[in-house]
Specification:
Blueprint: H1 2-7, E1 14-18, H2 20-26, H3 30-40, E2 47-53, E3 56-61, H4 63-77, E4 90-94, H5 109-124, E5 128-135, H6 140-148, H7 158-163, H8 176-181, H9 184-193, H10 195-209, H11 217-233, E6 241-244, H12 245-250, H13 253-262, E7 267-269, E8 275-278, E9 290-294, H14 302-316, E10 319-325, H15 329-341, E11 349-353, E12 356-357, H16 374-392, H17 398-418, E13 426-427, H18 430-433, H19 441-457, H20 474-496, H21 500-519, H22 529-550
Parallel strand pairs: 4-5, 4-10, 5-6, 10-11, 12-13
Antiparallel strand pairs: 1-3, 2-3, 7-8, 8-9
The structure holds one RNA strand.
Length: 558
Amino acid sequence: MSRQLELAEGPEGEIALALHRNAAAAGRKADELAAEAAAEFPAPEGIREVRAVGAYLNFAVDPVWLARRTFGLLARSGRRYGGSDGPAETVCVEHTSANPTGPLHVGRIRNSIIGDTLARVLRARGHAVTTQYYVDDVGRQAAMVTWIWARPPSEWPEEIRRAVEGSRLDDASERADVRYGRPYPAVSAYLKTHPEAAAEVGAITEALEAGRSPPRHREIARATLEGMMVSLARIGVTFDEFVWESSFLADGSVARVLEALRSAPHAVREENGALAIDASGRNLPKESDRIVVARANGTSLYVTRDVAYHLQKLARFPRAIDVMGQDHLLHARTLEVLLGEVGETRRPQFVLYQYLTTPDGGGMSTRKGTAVHLDHLLDEATERARAEVRLRWPESPPEAVERISQGVASGAVRYHIARVAPDKAVAFRWEDALSFEGRSGPFVQYAFVRATSLLRKSGSGGPFALDAAQLAALEELALVRAIARWPRIVAYVERTYHVHAIATYAHDLAEAFNRFYQQVPVLKAGAERESRLALVDGARTTLGAVLDLLGVPTLERM
RNA sequence: GGGCGUGUAGCCUAGCCUGGAUAGGGCGCCGGGUUCCUAACCCGGCGGUCGGGGGUUCAAAUCCCCCCACGCCCGCCA
């Protein structure tokens, strides 16, 4: 019944109960039953009136009761409103984990934003969350970067030099991800037509997989990663831990995994001596029913190292969440099978999302030159925001313009990515990503600014006492209801990991505030002034809490 | 061929888990709103076979089946 109540919440704040089922069970007509029930049903606490509308029983929520309850909770929790101090779990959220081979592009940040937002939500709900970035410093892609930078640009193959001509090649002051990543697409193309070079890269890969690290390899990967983190910091994404894939080779845990797999229940030898797990009957595609975990020469594969990583992760974190593109689904299933083979009973949880594509539906790829770099997008967004700020606030000090522009840009980008359900493929369009209006981050930020401005101009630091009985306007009641919904939204996201619901709610709340702001005078109000300031304060706190979880900066002015 | 996902107005999208009253928003378009708390706002209008078909049900965007379209995956790559 409580389920039906929530689902059927109407625009006037009433809660509706459909009586068809009850009527059928009682052999009655639904509308008659509703009328009868309305007459007899005593209004429970918080309900002002029980009324029959057709076959529905409508419970009108008492706005005074709702406002008192909501603002009581708000006063106790402040900016942590919507959070919880229920039973805490130890959780790991792994996200982004892009190869350290160059600057982050927009296609990657859906992972970052989903993961970071989820981590924020789980933290707000009281869990002990550790975010991890799994750094693949062992595979072929990292090897390619190491290969080209093993010599100075002056000694690079002519084709590669030509492809990056005109760029500063050896400028140590340049950010490392940009610098080291620049030749990457050209190297990738070059290797396709130069088998001897590909063999050299292969040798590096083999060395890495055998646990050896070529000169400069580690240094370049680390510096590149640091550069990438500068980009992510611009949208408020940081990590607690970086876990290097090579560390599982170095500490022997991959070897131990291989040992365990050799005597695993379904271990088999391939004809050439490779070690595999027979996964037939495990609901994997037929072609994948042999999971090769070690080559004939004994070196490990990505999935093998991933087993070592997850064994460590699951030992530390009872709840381990991996955010990954849905193209990794089969890999996830394979990983689960292998964890079972080595006797691990726990499993990670996977949050899958569809990739961001280019407007024509193609994949974003650095190699193909179809990627939009995160920095480029943020620079463009910041530039647009600057123009807007100067227009609205001509005498603004330059540092304020910068702070606001960067906050707006960051908010616009984060919101734009967070707003869509992860199951949907999203085509990246500049004009959409750079929108500051409508269903956007700045729309929500602006509502927060308006509320802040009202409180600042009130001449009082608060706190303001809410006299719930003075709330009368429809816009006031709607705003109270919107504020009251927030804890349920956070709880929903905690349960489903559907972080986009936060973005949807953020817009709804901002809209409710804007309508109130438009219709109801605050500073010039008479007897209701204090109550309205309290309402503004509550809306501001809630907007702030929502923006915090979205990772969208809150601004005092814009 | 198999698996996973998606299909909602010109474009983008929420709702689908857990069926319920006229399917919410946004962009764009048309028309309004500032002597008053920031117009990155608000109000009104136009625009919908919820991919198609069948089924279950008093009731289907929502559950089941079939089909179509699109994306992704099915390496001793990562």
